[in-house]
């Protein structure tokens, strides 16, 4: 029923050798040549050629044959001294005595050494056409992480871990992880009942079980975690159950259960979590202080700025502090993109695993740069949407999921307990996909705000009055055909040009795709004919020398082509910088007042990072008119 798979056991050595040999002897031609090529010099088999002769030799001189195979097909940490000591009459079976090897090293490490990019697993998932590939490098990483996780939770050599999972890469990695740390694994078919599972757990005396929340087979969902819960009633030896997520549906976790991932950033024990937000901002509260500390994480406190003393500051810090998760704002990414790739490439970023973005829509160019340059194309970028009022991340991709598709610039999928809905202008819920509306939440969740200090009525009026029965976020969102969410910006930032409603973020995204542009901000202004006109502020990348009139024409052309002619800016003002809050958000309210020439109404500027930026903007605006 179960296969002991300890890293140094003789049993493992012999069983692995048998499997390996069997597998190549079953294929013809090429493999036979391989056998012939490696055997003669090692086992005095010169002159042996052809399958029949080889087979004859494997029986007549089996010790030499198996010794040659074992030496040439496997990596031994300690070579064996005796090939075999077997006596069938007494049931004594001993192979490769004195030898030590690790099965997972043989399956993974040696291939990663020579060809890390070779595909090791092709996962043909239940959902037809959604297959996924894992390279040897990726499988090794997954295996090592799991091995470390098991070790940290006290699993040691000789223990037996029960794996109750569907056929998936995580199950393979779990098996290899057990082998790696010298634990035996007891893989139980995921179709077995709670009783059958319990019997096998008791038989193996497992204290650890690995499972998934739900399985998916033939289009049907099976409640694997619930089956484990039932089995636990008659398995007193089990101390811990690791639970991975195969589907999005949360499951009830007990004190015995351990989630196998943190969900957005794939944080694992021992990682260094680098959120570069200021603690005066909600991101600093939730993802520098409370979140990381509550989870026993190591959290970085970043006191400086992204360009002090130079634009390599973040990546220099990543190298020195060995940061694994980096979480920052699109505004900083756009700023750094301006200075060029060399500031990133100077530093070793190999520790990075996940890159996060928060606070604003991240435009396509910034997303691509973050992913390709900062993350070397290997780190998932998680565009996380949330607000001060929501307390924590509400919509975000989950790279650790098997369904880990990530679309640039999309917050993607609601997090646990979050039930987003889109509303039309009449306050009706939009049920179809491929649609846009006001983003509301249909259900409460524990992290959400409870009131506004000393002004509960304002709380009600702002968040619950616009769409009775729903929490109103104030943001607009688009839900794609696949059901993924993309935040289109504050609803106040939607402008109406000649009856066409358009999010300013959409225009900014196109403008930012121009290679000369570092960032932009688009606002509406009162237009006597169109109702509202489009006014764009554009900051160029460092060292760009162009004729502003030429560039304006180019940008207008891009917007007309990619969105529509009506969206093309009536005014383009080139600026050295944009007015921003200290948390990096562009102060669009200020820009709107400037273009409306309402300088009296600029309002409270105390949160501005650099008030001089407003003066520059005012002067530039006056020059343009
Ligand atoms: O408009 C959304 C935008 O930032 C607003 C919340 O700002 P604040 O309360 O300061 O919290 C910032 C940190 C969470 C949202 O209403 N926003 C936040 N994240 C994103 C975003 N817009 C687009 N994409 C995001 N990922």
UniProtKB/TrEMBL annotation:
Residues 506-585 form the AMP-binding enzyme C-terminal domain. This is Propionate--CoA ligase. It comes from the Eukaryota. Belongs to the ATP-dependent AMP-binding enzyme family. Residues 53-107 form the Acetyl-coenzyme A synthetase N-terminal domain. One of its GO terms (biological process) is acetyl-CoA biosynthetic process. Residues 109-241, 245-445 form the AMP-dependent synthetase/ligase domain. One of its GO terms (cellular component) is mitochondrion. Its EC number is 6.2.1.1, 6.2.1.17. It is an enzyme of class 6 (ligase). It catalyses: acetate + ATP + CoA = acetyl-CoA + AMP + diphosphate; propanoate + ATP + CoA = propanoyl-CoA + AMP + diphosphate. InterPro entries: ACAS_N, AMP-bd_C, AMP-bd_C_sf, AMP-dep_synth/lig_dom, ANL_N_sf. Keywords: ATP-binding, Ligase, Nucleotide-binding. GO terms for molecular function: acetate-CoA ligase activity; ATP binding; propionate-CoA ligase activity.
């Amino acid at each position: 029923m179960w296969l002991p798979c300890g890293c140094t056991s003789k049993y493992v050595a012999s069983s692995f050798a048998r499997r390996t040999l069997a597998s190549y002897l079953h294929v013809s031609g090429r493999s036979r040549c391989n056998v012939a090529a490696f055997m003669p010099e090692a086992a005095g088999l010169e002159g042996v050629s052809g399958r029949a002769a080889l087979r004859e030799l494997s029986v007549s001189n089996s010790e030499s044959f198996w010794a040659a195979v074992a030496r040439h097909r496997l990596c031994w940490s300690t070579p064996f001294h005796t090939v075999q000591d077997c006596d069938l009459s007494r049931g004594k079976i001993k192979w490769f005595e004195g030898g030590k090897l690790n099965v997972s090293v043989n399956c993974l490490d040696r291939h990663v050494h020579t060809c890390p990019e070779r595909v090791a697993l092709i996962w043909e998932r239940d959902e037809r056409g959604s297959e996924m590939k894992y390279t040897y490098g990726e499988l090794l990483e997954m295996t090592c992480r799991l091995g470390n996780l098991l070790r940290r939770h006290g699993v040691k050599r000789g223990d037996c871990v029960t794996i109750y999972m569907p056929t998936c890469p995580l199950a393979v990695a779990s098996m290899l992880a057990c082998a790696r740390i010298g634990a035996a694994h007891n893989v139980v078919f995921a179709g077995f009942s709670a009783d059958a599972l319990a019997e096998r757990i008791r038989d193996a005396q497992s204290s650890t079980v690995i499972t998934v929340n739900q399985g998916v087979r033939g289009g049907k969902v099976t409640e694997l975690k619930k089956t484990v819960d039932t089995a636990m009633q008659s398995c007193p030896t089990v101390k811990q159950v690791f639970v991975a997520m195969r589907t999005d549906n949360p499951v009830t976790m007990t004190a015995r259960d351990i989630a196998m991932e943190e969900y957005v950033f794939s944080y694992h024990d021992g990682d260094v979590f680098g959120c570069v937000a200021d603690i005066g901002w909600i991101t600093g509260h939730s993802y520098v202080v409370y979140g990381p500390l509550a989870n026993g994480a190591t959290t970085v406190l970043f006191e400086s700025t992204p360009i002090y003393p130079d634009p390599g500051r973040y990546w220099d810090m990543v190298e020195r502090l060995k940061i694994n998760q980096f979480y920052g704002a699109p505004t900083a990414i756009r700023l750094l993109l301006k200075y060029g790739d060399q500031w990133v490439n100077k530093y070793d970023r190999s520790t990075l695993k996940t890159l996060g973005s928060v606070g604003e829509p991240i435009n396509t160019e910034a997303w691509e740069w973050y992913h390709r340059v900062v993350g070397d194309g290997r780190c998932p970028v998680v565009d996380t949407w949330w607000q001060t009022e929501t307390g924590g991340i509400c919509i975000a991709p989950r790279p650790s999921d098997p369904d880990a598709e990530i679309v640039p610039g999309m917050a993607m999928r609601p997090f646990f307990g979050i039930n987003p809905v889109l509303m039309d202008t009449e306050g009706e819920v939009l049920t179809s996909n491929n649609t846009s509306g006001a983003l509301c939440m249909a259900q409460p969740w524990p992290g959400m705000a409870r009131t506004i200090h000393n002004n509960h009525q304002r709380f009600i009026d702002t968040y619950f009055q616009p769409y009775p029965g729903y929490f109103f976020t104030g943001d607009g969102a688009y839900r794609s055909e696949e059901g993924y969410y993309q935040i289109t910006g504050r609803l106040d930032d939607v402008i109406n040009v000649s009856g066409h409603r358009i999010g300013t973020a959409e225009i900014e995204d196109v403008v930012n795709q121009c290679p000369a542009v570092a960032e932009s901000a688009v606002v509406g202004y009162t237009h006597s004919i169109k109702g509202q006109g489009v006014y764009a502020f554009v900051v160029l990348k460092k060292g760009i020398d162009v004729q502003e009139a030429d560039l304006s024409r180019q940008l207008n052309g891009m917007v007309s082509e990619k969105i529509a002619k009506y969206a093309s800016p009536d005014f383009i003002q080139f600026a050295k910088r944009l007015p921003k809050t200290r948390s990096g958000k562009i102060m669009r309210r200020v820009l709107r007042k400037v273009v409306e020439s309402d300088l009296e109404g600029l309002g409270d500027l105390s949160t501005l990072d650099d008030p001089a930026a407003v003066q520059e903007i005012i002067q530039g605006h006056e020059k343009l008119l």
